[in-house]
Amino acid sequence: MKKLKFFGKIMFLVNSLAAFLLLISYILPYVPPKNFATLSVLSLGVPLLLLLNILFFVYWLLQVKKQMLLSLIVLLLGWSYLGSLYKFSSSKQIEDTNNISLLSFNVRLFNMYSWLPSKTVKADIEAFIKREQPDIICLQEYRTKDPIELEGYYGYNTTFNNAIKRGQALFSKFPIVNSGSLEFTNTSNNAIFVDVVRAKDTIRIYNLHLQSSGVNTDVDELKKGSSEQLFKQVGTTFKAQQQQVELFLAHKAKSPYKTIVTGDFNNTAYSYVYREIKGNDLVDTFEEAGNGFGKTYDFKYFPLRIDFILADKRFSINGFKTYNGLKLSDHYPIKATLSLE
C-alpha cells in the first residue's frame, strides 16, 4: 500500500471489500436463512462480486502490481462459482434417439398488466412453444383463466389466486399417470409435480415457483427505499423459501422415480435453497451443457440466473439453451435435452 498513490489506495480498499464479501459468500450455501437471514441476502450479489474481483485482478495485472494476488486468491478459492457464473465452452448438443427435451419458462401472466408494450405476448409465447416442440413444458405464473392452446400434450395445472387465476402448469407429450400440488403456506407460490411414462421408465418432474421478494429490481426504484428495509424484506423472503424447500424435499424423498426439478427459484446458484434442492443426486443442466452467462432474469446491470433445470445424475445431459434474446417476460426460457442411460 505504501507504494500506491492516493487513487491506487482507494482502489485497493474497494478491492479488499469486494474480495472480503466474496469470501464470505462462499459459506452462504451452508447457512440456513432462518439462522442468518440478513447475511443470506448477499447471495444475490455474488455474480456482481465475481465480476468485480475479475476486473480488479485484470486492473492490477495490467499494472504489474502484487495487489492482483488478493482477488486472484479469492477467485481461485471459489473456482466452482465461476462455472456457475459463466461457461466458456460452447453449448453441447448431442443427438440421441432417446433424447427428452424440457422447457421451463416464467411467463409472467402472459403480460396481463402490460409490463411489455407488445399486445401479442401470449400469442408469441404459444408460437415459440409450438416452434420448439419440447417434450415437457414447465410454466410458472401461468394464467389458467386464459390458457394457451397446445395440441398433442397432456396437461396439469393449479390455481392459487381466484381473481387472477394464476399458478403453475406442466404439459407433457408423454402420458401423465400421477400429479399433485405442494401447498406452500401464506403465499400464492407453490410447486406442482407429475409422473410421466416414457417407454419403460416413469419420471417424476417438479415445477417450482419459490417465494418472490416482491422487490422492484429497477435500480432507480431500489435507490428510493432504505437498505435496511430492502435487507429485511429479502431476508424474510429467503426464510419463506427455506420452509418451502423443506416441504419440497420431504415430498421428493418419498418418490421412487428418476427426478427432474425445474422452475423459478427466485434465488441464485450461490444460495442455500439452491444447494438444498440440488443435493447430491441432481446436476445443473446449464453447468453440464450450457454456455455464456446463462442469464435467465432481465436485470440489466449484471447477469442473474434464477431459473433452473436440475436432473437426476442417471440422465445424460445432451444439450442446454437459454433464450435470452426472447423478450416475452421478465424471465427468459431455458431448455435442456436429456437422455436416460
UniProtKB/TrEMBL annotation:
One of its GO terms (molecular function) is endonuclease activity. The keyword Glycoprotein does not apply. Keywords: Endonuclease, Hydrolase, Membrane, Nuclease, Transmembrane, Transmembrane helix. Pfam families: Exo_endo_phos (PF03372). One of its GO terms (cellular component) is membrane. One of its GO terms (biological process) is GPI anchor biosynthetic process. The keyword Cell cycle does not apply. CDD domains: EEP-2. Signal peptide: none annotated. Residues 103-331 form the Endonuclease/exonuclease/phosphatase domain. InterPro entries: Endo/exonuclease/phosphatase, GPI-anchor_lipid_remodeler. The chain crosses the membrane at residues 12-31, 37-62, 69-88. PANTHER family: CALCOFLUOR WHITE HYPERSENSITIVE PROTEIN PRECURSOR (PTHR14859), ENDONUCLEASE_EXONUCLEASE_PHOSPHATASE DOMAIN-CONTAINING PROTEIN (PTHR14859:SF15). This is Endonuclease/exonuclease/phosphatase family protein. It comes from Winogradskyella luteola.
